Amino acid sequence: MTAMIEVDDLSKTYVLHTQGGVEIPVFADASLTVEAGECLTLHGPSGAGKSTLLRCLYGNCKPNGGAIRIHHDGAMVDIARADPRQVIEVRKRSMGYVSQFLRAIPRVPALDVVAEPLRAIGVPLDQARQRAAELLSRLRIPERLWSLAPATFSGGEQQRVNIARGFAARHPILLLDEPTASLDAENRAQVIDLIVEAKSEKRALVGVFHDDEVREAVSTRLHTMRG
Ligand SMILES: Nc1ncnc2c1ncn2[C@@H]1O[C@H](COP(=O)(O)OP(=O)(O)OP(=O)(O)O)[C@@H](O)[C@H]1O
Predict the structure, then answer these.
(1) Distance from the CA of 100 to the center of ligand 1, in angstroms?
(2) Is any atom of ligand 1 closer than 6 Å to the C-beta of 61?
(3) Is residue 222 predicted with pLDDT exceeding 90?
(4) How far apart are the first and last CA of the chain?
(5) Facing residues of 208 across strands?
(6) pLDDT of amino acid 187
(7) Burial 70-106 (b: 16+ CB within 10 A, else e)
(8) Which residues form the ABC transporter domain (predicted)?
């Protein structure tokens, strides 16, 4: 078995500098390991720190203590202490992230928003667009929308473009923050299929899934956070 993510004794407290330095302790002793081929679900009540932990794993949020080791280029990289260039490399080649909302880039058509992570690792334009088209079809984005920038798309359409983008480059590690929150049953089923396929390709996934059906269909294990 290959450990793709190792988290040891991670702690996070937010400090609200603009509100008198109020401290919000989120978690104090988070430890977990994620192996290749599994989908670990972060589970717990609202405010328990699930999204915060995902953001820490992606290097978007600095923990106060502990370590996060991410498998990259055959070694483990401590993402909380890595320099920004190394974080960019890890995100390009080793770790993808589907956030709750698409950060649409103005004027870039949906097809290229999805193809971009592949272009970033040197995949030729036609191949990258072919993979993007496959994913957009699978996620039922009508072809007439592919050449338009997603800024005007509905919430559900934007989320599906976001999911297609997250799955495009087949990163060995994928973080998913409520990817099915604004989707109907048919699209939820497509996302379940993509996750099951990623597991069968021995990729490692960590996700937050509020939908019971999705959680039960994809989770290999639950990591409970008490808050
Ligand atoms: N950027 C931030 N600055 C300050 N406090 C924050 C910030 N982000 C989250 N928090 C606080 O940290 C706690 C954990 O939030 P987080 O979003 O990680 O929880 P969650 O388990 O994902 O919740 P939910 O299930 O409702 O999405 C909350 O009390 C929240 O108010």
Answers:
(1) 13
(2) no
(3) yes
(4) 30
(5) 177
(6) 92
(7) bbbeeebbebbebeeeebeebbbbbbbbbbeebebee
(8) 5-226
Of 79, 82, 112, 100, nearest in space to 10 by CA: 79
Distance CA 55, CA 51 (A): 6
User: What residues does each domain of the chain span?
Assistant: 105-164
- Ligand 1 touching residue 14 (CB < 6 A): yes
Question: Does pLDDT of 177 surpass 80?
Answer: yes
Predicted confidence at residue 33, as pLDDT, reads: 97
CA of 127 to the centre of ligand 1 (A): 39
Contact assessment for residue 205 and residue 176, using Cβ atoms and an 8 Å cutoff: yes
Of 12, 14, 182, 224, best ligand 1 pocket probe by most atoms within 8 Å of the beta carbon: 14
Interface confidence: ipTM more than 0.85: yes
Q: Which atom of ligand 1 is nearest to the CA of 16?
A: 4
Count CA within 13 A, CB hemisphere, residue 70.
28
**Token output for 9:** 């004794």
